[in-house]
Amino acid sequence: MRAARLSFCLLLILAALGTLHRAAPTVQAQVSTSQKLDAALVTKISQSLPGTPFVLRIAYAEARRFIAAGVPVAVGSDLNPNCYGESLPFAFTLSVYEMKMTPAEALVAITINAAVAIRREHEIGSLKAGKLADIVILKGPSYLHLGYHIGGNPIKTVIKRGRVVVGK
To answer: How many other C-beta atoms lie within 10 A of the C-beta of residue 3?
Structure first.
């Protein structure tokens, strides 16, 4: 069980901090049109903030279309005037239930793909020697459980740059 937790422990705080700082060219795809898919093929990544369609009651991005076309999907929380969606675990849940991503795809979308979207994949986004140790360890036995704990706090420990800042 510890290995399963560690395989998910990189719930990047970077996505909650916003994806505009040093952002790579992306296509924000709340609704997937053919034009947005074509644009995403050029920019090489699609960014989705599923809190916005949740709040505005509009259609979610069709992540399956982007994934099928070979376009990486980055998912983040959303903190702007129309959506104070500060919870990355909730964005993960919406990605799975509303955007039809598998839990593994959602995990990649909120970690390494989110890092790529803000051009920081060389320093954050995955557990690798030489990268900053921004890690979140969950209370549950696996990242697969994250989508089932809607509205709760699944976070046990937060490690920022190698130092424990929340929990033990």
So the answer is: 7
Which tokens belong to 60? 């979610």
Q: Among 99, 53, 103, 42, which residue's Cα sits nearest to residue 78?
A: 53
89: which 2 tokens? 């675990």
- In this predicted model, what pLDDT tens digit does every residue of 6-52 receive, in sequence order? 333 333 333 333 333 344 444 444 445 555 555 555 556 778 889 98
- Alpha helical stretches, state H, 111-161: 112-117
* Three-class SS state of 17: coil
**What are the tokens at 64?**
């399956």
Q: What is the distance between the alpha carbons of residues 150 and 54, in angstroms, rounded to a whole number? A: 14
Tokens of 164: 């424990």
